[in-house]
Every structure is written in C-alpha cells, then in structure tokens.
Amino acid sequence: MKFIATSDWHLGNLFHGNDRLDEHRHFLSWLLGQIDVQQPDALLIAGDIYDNSNPSAAAQQAYYTFLTDATRLCPQMHIIITAGNHDSASRLEAPRALLSLFHIEVRGNLVHTYVDNERVYNYDDLIIPISNAQGEKIVVVAVPYLRSDVVQTASYSDGVNNILRQLTARARELYPDNKIVMMAHMYAKGADIAKEDASEKIIVGGQEEVGLGSWPDHPDYLTCGHIHKRQRIWGTNWARYTGSVLPMSFAEKDYTHGVDVVTINSAENVDVQHLIYTPQHSLCILPENDEEISPKKLAKLIVSELPERVNGKLDDNAAYVLLKVAQDNVSNDEIKDLEDLFANKNAVLCRIQKINRALNIHTLTGEHEIQSVDEVLNRDPMETLREAFAIKHGVEMNEQQETLLADLLSNINTDEND
User: Fold this and answer.
1) How many helices (H) and strands (E) would you count in the chain?
2) pTM here?
3) Distance between CA atoms of 362 and 17, rounded to whole angstroms?
C-alpha cells in the first residue's frame, strides 16, 4: 500500500504582503505530476489546508480545483483531509457528504456526545479503512487538530495523548489484521522549530507539547502536520513531520520542502521516500550572516548578488529578499536609496529589518527574542491576540472566537484600504 503524505499548504497566505496564490498553484501542479507518476493508493493531507479560518474565494477555488484534477488523474486514489489549527473545522467539513462520493474523506472535528454527564467521543468516525485494487487494506486514523475546548483536561498534553492512544486501540480492535496509519496535526515534544520569526503557532509555556516517545502500542506509521520543518518526531522511528510546502517566514529559508511517499508492505517494513519540491520564489537574506554593514556596503551587495530584470519585468522565479541593517547606522534617505535599487532587480524586497543589538524584548510565548521594532510591527496580529487570550484566560480561543476576531481584523484592513 502506497500513499503520499503532505500538510501545511496554507492556501491564501500572504508573504509580507505578497499574494502567494500563483506559488500555491505551482506547488499543486507539481503535486499532480507526482500523483500521475506515483499512482498512489491514497493522499493524506494533515491539516492547515488554508492559512486562516476565513479563506478567500480564490484560495478555495485552488483547493477544489486540485481535488477535481487529482480524482480525474487517479480515480482509484483515496484522499483523506484533516483540519489544522489554521483551518475552520466546520468550513472544511461542510462539503463532506458530497466529497465522500468521490473517495475524498474530510475530518474537521472529533465528534462527541454526553452520557450521564460524561463526554463520550465517537472514535469510529475518525477511523477510515481503505483498500487498493490489489485488495490490500490499511486503516487510516484521521485526527484533526484537537483544540483545548475539545480535550477539556487539566493537562492538554495528557489529554491528547489519551485520545491518540484510545483511537489507536479502537482501530486495532475493529481491524486487528490491518496496518494502522495515523495522521495528526500537533506540536510534538522535541520538535525542531524556527527560533526566530517562527510562524508555527506554539502555545505559551509549551502547554500543547505532546510526547510520543513512550508508546509501546503505537500506530505502524504517523504523519504529522503543524511544524514546518520536515523531521522525524523525537523519540520515535515511526512518526515524522512532512513539513510545509512553502517557507512561511525568512527563518525557514533553508528548509527542504516536498511530500513523503510512504510504502507499507506485509513484511512489517515502512519505506519513506521524500520527493523534493523547489518553491517558485527562493528566499534571500542580505547580508547572510550577522555582520553589521553600512548602507553603502549593503547597496553594493544588492547590486552584486541580485540578478537584473529581463525587459524590465519580474519573472515567475523572482527571489524574496530580506535586508538587515543596524538601527543606529541608517537614515530614512538611505533606506529609500536601498528600496530604489530593487526597481531593476529580479527580486522582491519584502522587508528591511532594522537590528537594535541592545533590544531584548520577548514575545508573549517566550519562544524567541524580538530583535527589532519592525519585527513587532510585522507580526501577525492574530497570533498576538491568540497568545494574549491564552495568557489571560488559561485556555485557547475557540473556533467561534477566532472567526469573530478574523472578521474584525479583515474589516479593519478593508477600512484602511478604502
């Protein structure tokens, strides 16, 4: 049984104000090519399909166009999709009944009821058996992002661990003779995240950190979303992050992107092959090291390192550029001169980061130190609001609260642009 595993598409993402829809279409076209070559039995997409809970019509069109093209290209392929923390679970699940007619299964919520005032989870809803043309079968346990209002235990980490273990036990009870593949979206203990300009949503104090190392009856394989760097999950030889399909910040400049092709055979072997995808736009940081250089030297670096435009136009592969300059070593006129140099360069200036070496401000999460005022100003306001809410109330915002805030921020941006 062979399947392709991917996650963290973040359709609708803006990279420092630059619409990435063409970049995402480029990736989705590449993925269709891999599906055509590999002819997998299944495609597993482990969350963060969209970049926010209220995606644009264009982002949704790209998503549904891909699903249409994929099912036409590989009619026998099962597609299983789970919601991530950036997704609206209800929005993602809305067309579930229709999509299931085309071998596309969507899981956004862990359904539960109450019996004698005790919460009872419907684990069976997340357990999906799939078969291929040869009659081989595996069981996919499709776990969406588990929000704190769903887990409802004093320790979020322990609560998630209990749910994952009970799900696996239930799957083995229902299908004792089949391999179990789990897909999830969470922050696993020991995960390597970007220390600066991190775009993964990490809750204050690591309260969402889930340890997977001591799990004797674990699934045969686990593919995970949420962390953007492809890596094996700490303490396991059976679980890994596939990583994001595009870099989500300059801190992810050196990450490898792509999808995993996972083959599970009857001999208990699990083979993982990484198919590398090269994003349309590379990331460039000038200077590459932490050297403090004058605006004049930085200008020379821009001239020497960045290619010229052809016929005065940016091409589809123009680099995204971050310039680093010392706060106390640059004037507004010099900043303007640096910006003007990009008029003839095949590159997009995304940000000029003014570094203040003496500044030592911490984010609300305490996860990384902010080195510049620009970093504060360019930070996603939704992330700050989520963190502030978690600190004040001791729990994470629920989906309705996030949607209300997202709509409010959208209205503010609309008013500013009118």
Assistant:
1) 11, 23
2) 0.83
3) 24
